[in-house]
């Protein structure tokens, strides 16, 4: 998923005044006209593909009912568990660094009193978000290749003198986490900054008068008040992270398959569909990923309390 | 110890810890500024260098305009000007999706915010849930669906799925339900406006900021989309630049030794391609940042 999109979503995190009730229901015919195109797109690209994936996942190539055969097949595939492991390892590193560093940087930037400095820092953090998908991965291929890298000295100091040494399998989860953090963290920092602005200055002032230092204020007041936003960031990033595709895909291509092309779950689904022509197997993997994403998202919409559904 | 002294030492202790906190914060900030900026700055410089200069020269020594021109020539002569086609495709897909997104989501957001109809709340909740699903999650199912109706490989196979943009609908919904006074619409109705005219004459002219915001987010998301076109468009004539980058990467001997041949791409040329692939978005980010950040943090400031 792109960084921009991910950072863009919380625009919507409005706590509004109660939604005003429309006066009468008599004008609904025009209303249907207004929502018709969007509703059609929702059906065509939201609901139908989901249902079709369900259908494929539970049928055989010939269209007869297959029960859970497709699921047992893909889960039993020798590539499935390693892919789960890769994605899980990547997610742990990414989520921990995201939660800790984004919160830390947002608190720091928020504490800066000099306006131009604070806004410049936010822009600097945010700017890499313009590079999403293939572009950011390509940029990091350069950075990770010791012969051309701007930080070649650093890589060599770590004992890595060639690209192949940099991208050994054990390094990949942290590498993907770094790429994702580089492109995605800035948007979240900006959002956390907005949330910090939200905390009433009176509360902070009261704590200061009671003798709380900068660290205590951050730890005892700002952090607890950010908790909802941090969990929102965590859940959205978790859902997005399970979809890992473009990073290993490009790295696989750039390394002559030192990085396998079935490194992540989404890649494995892609292999099923396009190498093995097994759409039913591909649908089964897609469905597993979709259910995870749907569950996380539905949980947050219905329970998270950050969204207004009037 | 007098009271005066206690207060004094307290202040001084506070100063010392405040000072060290500030130093640590400064160091952390500097490290991360470098982390975020070095790759970007280096990429811009790299696109002006020669292949040899990229390896031999200091990483932050600028190249020459001649170097940039040479890389430009190499890039745009690759595969009989394929790069131009890819950039054109990106523009076609992103703008096409943008137009349909606006036509679909602005009226829908308006109707959900200011009118009443059956399934309104259901549509709203559905919008939220789908909005929070990563957009890659539905790509393979959509492929399977479009494959059934024979659209794979056509521009519509990417434009239509990109036009489904629930986030834009939600933004519009929030905007109309918080920013447009209902009395205004009621007054228009009293004056004899029909429902459609209320929308086109009253609501739409007031909606310029939200139209711009939705347009921007839609454009950026479509331009940067990789997985969807990667899956939908098998032929290289149809690639957008994001997918085209993979072809360039495959022709770069530095990353793919088997590719050395007439069509080979040097590293600085690949760097230039990366710059070009993000240029439209980068420019918008730079010039519209105040506007964007205001949009992104709207939630944080209005609570």
From TrEMBL, chain B:
InterPro entries from the UniProt entry: MetI-like, MetI-like_sf
Major localization class: membrane
Provide one Gene Ontology cellular component.
plasma membrane
Q: Where in the cell is it found?
A: Cell membrane
Keywords from the named record:
Cell membrane, Membrane, Transmembrane, Transmembrane helix, Transport
User: What is the membrane topology here?
Assistant: Multi-pass membrane protein
Show the CDD domains listed in the entry: TM_PBP2
Q: Name one Pfam family in it.
A: BPD_transp_1
Its family?
Belongs to the binding-protein-dependent transport system permease family.
* Name of the protein described by the UniProt record: Sugar ABC transporter permease
């Amino acid at each position: 998923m792109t960084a921009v999109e991910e950072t863009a979503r919380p625009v919507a995190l409005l706590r509004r005044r109660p939604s005003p009730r429309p006066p009468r229901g008599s004008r609904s015919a025009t209303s249907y006209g207004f929502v018709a195109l969007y509703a059609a797109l929702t059906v065509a690209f939201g609901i139908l593909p989901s249902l079709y994936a369900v259908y494929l996942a539970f049928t055989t190539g010939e269209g007869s009912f297959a029960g859970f055969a497709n699921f047992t097949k893909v889960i039993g595939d020798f590539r499935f568990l390693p892919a789960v492991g890769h994605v899980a390892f990547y997610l742990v590193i990414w989520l921990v660094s995201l939660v800790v560093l984004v919160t830390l940087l947002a608190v720091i930037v928020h504490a800066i009193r000099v306006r131009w400095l604070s806004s410049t820092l936010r822009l600097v953090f945010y700017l890499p978000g313009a590079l999403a998908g293939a572009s950011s991965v390509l940029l990091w291929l350069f950075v990770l290749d010791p012969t051309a890298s701007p930080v070649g000295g650093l890589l060599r100091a770590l004992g890595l003198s060639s690209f192949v040494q940099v991208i050994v399998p054990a390094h990949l989860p942290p590498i993907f986490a770094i790429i994702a953090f580089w492109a995605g963290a800035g948007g979240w920092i900006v959002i956390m900054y907005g949330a910090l602005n939200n905390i009433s200055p009176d509360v902070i002032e009261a704590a200061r008068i009671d003798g709380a230092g900068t660290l205590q204020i951050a730890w005892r007041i700002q952090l607890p008040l950010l908790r909802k936003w941090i969990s929102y960031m965590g859940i959205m990033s978790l859902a997005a992270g399970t979809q890992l595709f473009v990073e290993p895909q490009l790295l696989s291509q750039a390394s002559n398959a030192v990085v396998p092309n079935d490194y992540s779950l989404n890649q494995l689904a892609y292999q099923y569909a396009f190498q093995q022509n097994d759409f039913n197997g591909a649908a089964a993997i897609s469905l597993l990923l979709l259910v995870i994403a749907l569950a996380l998202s539905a949980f947050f919409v219905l329970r998270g309390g950050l969204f207004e559904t009037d | 110890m007098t009271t005066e002294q206690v207060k004094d030492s307290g202040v001084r202790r506070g100063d010392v810890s405040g000072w060290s906190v500030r130093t640590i914060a400064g160091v952390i900030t500097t490290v991360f500024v470098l982390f975020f900026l070095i790759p970007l700055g280096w990429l811009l410089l790299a696109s002006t260098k020669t292949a040899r200069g990229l390896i031999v020269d200091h990483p932050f020594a600028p190249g020459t305009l001649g170097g940039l021109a040479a890389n430009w020539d190499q890039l745009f002569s690759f595969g009989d000007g394929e790069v131009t086609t890819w950039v054109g495709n990106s523009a076609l897909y992103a703008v096409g999706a943008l137009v349909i997104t606006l036509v679909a989501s602005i009226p829908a957001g308006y109707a959900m915010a200011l009118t009443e109809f059956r399934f309104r709340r259901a549509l709203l909740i559905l919008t939220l849930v789908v909005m929070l699903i990563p957009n890659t999650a539905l790509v393979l199912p959509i492929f399977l669906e479009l494959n059934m109706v024979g659209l794979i490989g056509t521009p519509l196979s990417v434009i239509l799925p990109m036009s489904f943009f629930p986030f834009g609908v939600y933004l519009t919904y929030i905007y109309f339900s918080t920013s447009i006074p209902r009395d205004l619409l009621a007054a228009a109705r009293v004056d004899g406006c029909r429902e459609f005219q209320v929308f086109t004459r009253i609501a739409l002219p007031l909606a310029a900021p939200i139209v711009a915001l939705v347009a921007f987010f839609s454009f950026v998301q479509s331009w940067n989309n990789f997985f969807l076109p990667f899956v939908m468009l098998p032929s290289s004539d149809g690639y957008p630049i994001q997918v085209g980058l993979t072809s360039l990467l495959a022709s770069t001997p530095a990353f793919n030794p088997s590719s050395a041949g007439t069509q080979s791409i040097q590293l600085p040329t690949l760097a230039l391609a990366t710059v070009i692939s993000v240029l439209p978005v980068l420019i918008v980010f730079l010039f519209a940042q105040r506007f964007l950040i205001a949009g992104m943090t709207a939630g944080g400031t209005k609570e």
